[in-house]
From TrEMBL:
Residues 126-149 are annotated as: Disordered. Residues 14-130, 160-264 form the Rhodanese domain. Keywords: Repeat, Transferase. InterPro entries: Rhodanese-like_dom, Rhodanese-like_dom_sf, Thiosulfate_sulfurtransferase, Thiosulphate_STrfase_CS. It is an enzyme of class 2 (transferase). It comes from Haloarcula marismortui (strain ATCC 43049 / DSM 3752 / JCM 8966 / VKM B-1809) (Halobacterium marismortui). The keyword Repeat applies. The keyword Manganese does not apply. PANTHER family: THIOSULFATE SULFURTRANSFERASE. This is Sulfurtransferase. SMART domains: RHOD (SM00450).
Length: 265
């Protein structure tokens, strides 16, 4: 069970049995056009306030459960819906939507990230400015029995575990300025093909990961600042078949708020 990447051809072939979600701002959705049939669920609408990263429940930047259910209900989504999400930033915002859905219990096998973003799509395929009419649903959140979420103590332990690799998915400059002790650096964008704006070919992606010490046999623990960038890396790793991928939702916002140590380069 996992969220995966799907091609533009796959999305086009599915027709009405797929709920397409555009997570760009409303002005982009309305003014620049969108995929036919796509509903708009802007990124800011499913992000908690910054103070959420200190939540005792470990919810970090996740939205309120009721707010999430209302958003999906208004978008005409049911727990049985197959969803494909996209943005215009190589998929990083769309990945956050999909990870949020997974953490709130939507079947990961029904969650898909468009391989390539809006800019890639519009080069060869039809877009529209028409907002689809959708029938609201009564979406109910059913939290799964287990999730990839981990807290700061588990993150600290991972740095000393030879069977685990702690991964910082931010940019080089951010990593150098301060990172969790023992973390390796993997800028999430290094897994993106600049030409296609989608995921690197599998062999290339695996080579990038291996160079950073990230291999399928190890448990991978991900963090960034506010859990946006790790959402993309999480989806990539699960798509590539990594079985143990932990997700530090609180990330550095929580880590620093608790006064925990940082390393600098």
């Amino acid at each position: 069970m996992m969220t995966d990447f799907v091609s533009a051809e796959w999305v086009s072939s599915r027709g009405d049995d797929l709920r397409v979600v555009d997570v760009r701002d409303a002005w982009e959705y309305d003014g620049l056009g969108h995929l036919p049939g796509a509903v708009n669920v802007p990124f800011d609408s499913f992000r908690a306030d910054e103070h959420g990263a200190e939540s005792d429940a470990g919810d970090g930047m996740l939205p309120d459960e009721g707010d999430w259910a209302e958003l999906l209900s208004e978008a005409g989504i049911t727990p049985e819906s197959d969803i494909v999400a996209y943005d215009d930033h190589h998929g990083v915002f769309a990945a956050r939507f999909l990870v949020t859905a997974e953490l709130f219990g939507h079947d990961p096998d029904r969650l898909h990230l468009l391989d390539g973003d809006f800019s890639s799509w519009q080069l060869e395929r039809e877009t529209t400015s028409e907002t689809p009419t959708v029938e609201p649903t009564d979406y109910e959140v059913t939290r799964p029995d287990s999730t990839p979420l981990v807290g700061p103590d588990a993150v600290a332990d991972a740095a000393d575990d030879p069977d685990a690799v702690l991964v910082d998915t931010r940019e080089d400059e951010e990593y150098d300025a301060g990172h969790i002790p023992g973390a390796v650096l993997l800028d999430w964008r290094n897994l993106v093909d600049n030409e296609t704006r989608g995921l690197l070919p599998q062999d290339e992606a695996l080579s990038v990961l291996e160079a950073a010490g990230i291999v399928p046999g190890k448990r991978v623990v991900l963090y960034c600042n506010t859990a946006r960038r790790i959402s993309h890396t999480y989806v990539v790793l699960r798509h590539l078949g990594f079985e143990q991928v932990d997700f530090y939702e609180g990330s550095l916002t929580e880590w620093e708020a608790q006064g925990r140590p940082l390393e600098t380069n």
